[in-house]
Protein backbone atom coordinates (compact mmCIF):
# COMPACT_ATOMS: atom_id res chain seq x y z
CA UNK A 1 0.00 0.00 0.00
CA UNK A 2 1.29 3.43 -0.82
CA UNK A 3 -0.39 6.34 0.93
CA UNK A 4 -3.69 4.57 1.37
CA UNK A 5 -5.64 7.82 1.77
CA UNK A 6 -9.00 9.16 0.70
CA UNK A 7 -8.35 10.96 -2.59
CA UNK A 8 -10.69 13.35 -4.34
CA UNK A 9 -9.60 14.20 -7.86
CA UNK A 10 -11.14 17.21 -9.56
CA UNK A 11 -10.23 16.69 -13.18
CA UNK A 12 -11.19 20.20 -14.22
CA UNK A 13 -8.88 21.85 -11.71
CA UNK A 14 -6.59 18.83 -11.37
CA UNK A 15 -6.61 19.14 -7.57
CA UNK A 16 -5.95 16.18 -5.30
CA UNK A 17 -7.00 16.41 -1.64
CA UNK A 18 -6.00 13.54 0.63
CA UNK A 19 -5.96 12.42 4.24
CA UNK A 20 -3.21 10.45 6.05
CA UNK A 21 -2.85 6.75 5.39
CA UNK A 22 -0.15 4.22 4.68
CA UNK A 23 2.73 3.76 2.29
CA UNK A 24 5.38 1.24 1.37
CA UNK A 25 8.55 1.17 3.43
CA UNK A 26 12.05 1.98 2.23
CA UNK A 27 15.34 0.20 2.92
CA UNK A 28 16.41 2.45 5.78
CA UNK A 29 16.40 0.62 9.13
CA UNK A 30 18.08 2.75 11.80
CA UNK A 31 17.31 0.34 14.72
CA UNK A 32 15.96 2.99 17.12
CA UNK A 33 16.41 2.51 20.88
CA UNK A 34 13.47 1.38 22.98
CA UNK A 35 11.51 3.98 24.92
CA UNK A 36 8.70 6.54 24.64
CA UNK A 37 10.79 8.64 22.23
CA UNK A 38 13.25 7.59 19.56
CA UNK A 39 11.16 4.59 18.53
CA UNK A 40 10.92 0.93 19.49
CA UNK A 41 9.93 -2.49 18.14
CA UNK A 42 7.43 -5.12 19.17
CA UNK A 43 8.57 -8.53 20.37
CA UNK A 44 7.52 -10.07 17.06
CA UNK A 45 10.47 -8.37 15.37
CA UNK A 46 12.78 -10.86 17.10
CA UNK A 47 11.42 -13.71 14.98
CA UNK A 48 11.89 -14.55 11.33
CA UNK A 49 8.85 -13.84 9.16
CA UNK A 50 9.18 -15.28 5.63
CA UNK A 51 8.08 -12.95 2.83
CA UNK A 52 4.56 -13.48 1.50
CA UNK A 53 3.76 -13.58 -2.22
CA UNK A 54 0.74 -13.70 -4.46
CA UNK A 55 0.45 -14.73 -8.11
CA UNK A 56 -1.10 -12.46 -10.69
CA UNK A 57 -1.17 -14.20 -14.03
CA UNK A 58 2.40 -15.28 -14.62
CA UNK A 59 3.85 -12.77 -12.14
CA UNK A 60 4.81 -13.51 -8.55
CA UNK A 61 4.31 -10.35 -6.50
CA UNK A 62 5.11 -9.48 -2.87
CA UNK A 63 2.09 -9.30 -0.60
CA UNK A 64 1.24 -8.51 3.01
CA UNK A 65 0.43 -11.58 5.14
CA UNK A 66 -3.17 -11.65 6.41
CA UNK A 67 -2.13 -11.55 10.09
CA UNK A 68 -0.01 -8.45 9.55
CA UNK A 69 -2.77 -6.84 7.50
CA UNK A 70 -5.25 -7.45 10.33
CA UNK A 71 -2.88 -5.95 12.90
CA UNK A 72 -2.33 -2.89 10.74
CA UNK A 73 -6.07 -2.42 10.32
CA UNK A 74 -6.59 -2.59 14.11
CA UNK A 75 -3.82 -0.06 14.74
CA UNK A 76 -5.02 2.28 11.99
CA UNK A 77 -8.63 2.19 13.20
CA UNK A 78 -7.75 2.76 16.85
CA UNK A 79 -5.18 5.38 15.92
CA UNK A 80 -7.80 7.47 14.15
CA UNK A 81 -10.66 6.87 16.57
CA UNK A 82 -8.96 6.68 19.98
CA UNK A 83 -5.44 8.05 19.61
CA UNK A 84 -5.80 10.79 16.99
CA UNK A 85 -3.62 13.13 19.08
CA UNK A 86 -0.74 10.64 18.76
CA UNK A 87 -1.21 8.55 15.60
CA UNK A 88 0.22 10.00 12.38
CA UNK A 89 0.05 7.11 9.91
CA UNK A 90 1.59 3.79 8.98
CA UNK A 91 3.25 1.92 6.16
CA UNK A 92 4.03 -1.66 5.28
CA UNK A 93 7.47 -3.06 4.48
CA UNK A 94 6.59 -6.23 2.57
CA UNK A 95 10.20 -7.27 1.99
CA UNK A 96 10.85 -7.37 5.75
CA UNK A 97 7.31 -8.43 6.65
CA UNK A 98 6.71 -5.62 9.08
CA UNK A 99 4.56 -2.57 9.66
CA UNK A 100 5.93 0.86 10.55
CA UNK A 101 3.76 3.12 12.71
CA UNK A 102 4.45 6.84 13.05
CA UNK A 103 3.17 8.55 16.17
CA UNK A 104 3.75 11.46 18.50
CA UNK A 105 5.12 9.66 21.60
CA UNK A 106 2.28 8.41 23.81
CA UNK A 107 2.48 5.76 26.51
CA UNK A 108 -1.17 4.83 26.02
CA UNK A 109 -0.91 4.38 22.25
CA UNK A 110 2.40 2.55 22.57
CA UNK A 111 0.75 0.13 25.01
CA UNK A 112 -2.11 -0.45 22.57
CA UNK A 113 0.32 -1.18 19.72
CA UNK A 114 2.29 -3.58 21.89
CA UNK A 115 -0.85 -5.45 22.94
CA UNK A 116 -2.49 -5.61 19.51
CA UNK A 117 0.59 -6.53 17.44
CA UNK A 118 0.48 -10.17 18.58
CA UNK A 119 3.48 -11.95 16.99
CA UNK A 120 3.77 -9.48 14.11
CA UNK A 121 6.75 -7.16 13.71
CA UNK A 122 5.73 -3.53 14.20
CA UNK A 123 8.34 -0.78 14.21
CA UNK A 124 7.24 2.40 15.98
CA UNK A 125 8.82 5.71 14.99
CA UNK A 126 8.45 9.28 16.21
CA UNK A 127 6.34 11.77 14.28
CA UNK A 128 6.29 15.53 14.55
CA UNK A 129 2.53 15.87 14.12
CA UNK A 130 -0.48 13.64 14.71
CA UNK A 131 -3.42 12.96 12.42
CA UNK A 132 -5.80 15.20 14.40
CA UNK A 133 -3.55 18.24 13.98
CA UNK A 134 -2.76 17.55 10.34
CA UNK A 135 -6.42 17.02 9.50
CA UNK A 136 -7.20 20.49 10.85
CA UNK A 137 -4.43 22.04 8.74
CA UNK A 138 -5.44 19.99 5.70
CA UNK A 139 -9.04 21.20 5.97
CA UNK A 140 -7.95 24.78 6.57
CA UNK A 141 -5.82 24.86 3.43
CA UNK A 142 -8.59 23.20 1.38
CA UNK A 143 -11.09 25.79 2.66
CA UNK A 144 -8.67 28.53 1.57
CA UNK A 145 -8.34 27.24 -2.01
CA UNK A 146 -10.70 29.86 -3.49
CA UNK A 147 -8.68 32.55 -1.72
CA UNK A 148 -5.40 31.24 -3.10
CA UNK A 149 -6.84 30.97 -6.59
CA UNK A 150 -7.93 34.62 -6.38
CA UNK A 151 -4.40 35.55 -5.31
CA UNK A 152 -2.91 33.80 -8.35
CA UNK A 153 -1.40 31.00 -6.23
CA UNK A 154 -1.97 27.68 -7.98
CA UNK A 155 -2.29 24.76 -5.55
CA UNK A 156 -2.28 21.40 -7.32
CA UNK A 157 -2.34 18.90 -4.41
CA UNK A 158 -3.09 18.89 -0.69
CA UNK A 159 -2.28 15.73 1.26
CA UNK A 160 -1.28 14.88 4.83
CA UNK A 161 1.97 12.92 5.07
CA UNK A 162 1.65 9.45 6.61
CA UNK A 163 4.90 9.98 8.55
CA UNK A 164 3.50 13.02 10.35
CA UNK A 165 5.96 15.44 8.80
CA UNK A 166 3.17 17.81 7.80
CA UNK A 167 0.57 18.55 5.16
CA UNK A 168 2.19 18.34 1.74
CA UNK A 169 1.19 21.13 -0.64
CA UNK A 170 1.88 20.80 -4.35
CA UNK A 171 2.28 24.04 -6.25
CA UNK A 172 3.57 25.35 -9.56
CA UNK A 173 5.45 28.25 -7.97
CA UNK A 174 7.34 27.28 -4.83
CA UNK A 175 8.81 30.66 -3.95
CA UNK A 176 5.61 32.68 -4.34
CA UNK A 177 3.57 30.07 -2.48
CA UNK A 178 6.10 29.82 0.35
CA UNK A 179 6.09 33.58 0.76
CA UNK A 180 2.30 33.89 0.77
CA UNK A 181 1.78 30.86 3.03
CA UNK A 182 4.24 32.23 5.57
CA UNK A 183 2.33 35.49 5.63
CA UNK A 184 -1.07 33.82 6.12
CA UNK A 185 -0.23 30.76 8.26
CA UNK A 186 2.98 31.74 10.05
CA UNK A 187 6.41 30.15 10.18
CA UNK A 188 5.36 27.31 12.47
CA UNK A 189 2.62 25.86 10.29
CA UNK A 190 3.25 22.15 9.50
CA UNK A 191 3.05 22.68 5.75
CA UNK A 192 5.54 21.02 3.39
CA UNK A 193 5.69 22.69 -0.02
CA UNK A 194 6.75 20.70 -3.08
CA UNK A 195 6.89 21.62 -6.73
CA UNK A 196 4.19 19.62 -8.47
CA UNK A 197 2.10 20.20 -11.56
CA UNK A 198 -1.57 19.33 -12.04
CA UNK A 199 -2.56 15.68 -11.94
CA UNK A 200 -3.55 14.59 -15.42
CA UNK A 201 -6.08 11.79 -16.01
CA UNK A 202 -4.80 8.70 -17.79
CA UNK A 203 -5.89 8.44 -21.39
CA UNK A 204 -6.52 5.22 -23.25
CA UNK A 205 -6.28 4.56 -26.92
CA UNK A 206 -9.60 4.25 -28.75
TrEMBL record:
The lineage of its organism: Bacteria, Bacillati, Actinomycetota, Actinomycetes, Micromonosporales. Residues 21-40 are annotated as: Disordered. It comes from Actinoplanes sichuanensis. This is Lipoprotein. Residues 1-23 form the signal peptide. Keywords: Signal.
Amino acid sequence: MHRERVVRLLLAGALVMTTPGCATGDDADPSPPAGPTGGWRTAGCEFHHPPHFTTLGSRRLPATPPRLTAAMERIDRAGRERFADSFAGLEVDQARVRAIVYRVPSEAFDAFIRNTAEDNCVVVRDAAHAVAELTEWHDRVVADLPYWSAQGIHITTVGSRHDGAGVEIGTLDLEATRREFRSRYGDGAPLVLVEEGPVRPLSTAP
